[in-house]
Amino acid sequence: MANLKTPCSFNFSTKVFEFALQNANAFFSEINGNPRINNKMKTGFEKFLECLDLYLELLNNPTIDEARIRIYGSVMLSNGAIVRATSNFHNREWFSEVAISMSSKESDDYISDQGVCYGQVIYMFKIIY
Question: Residue 56, SS3?
Answer without folding.
Answer: helix
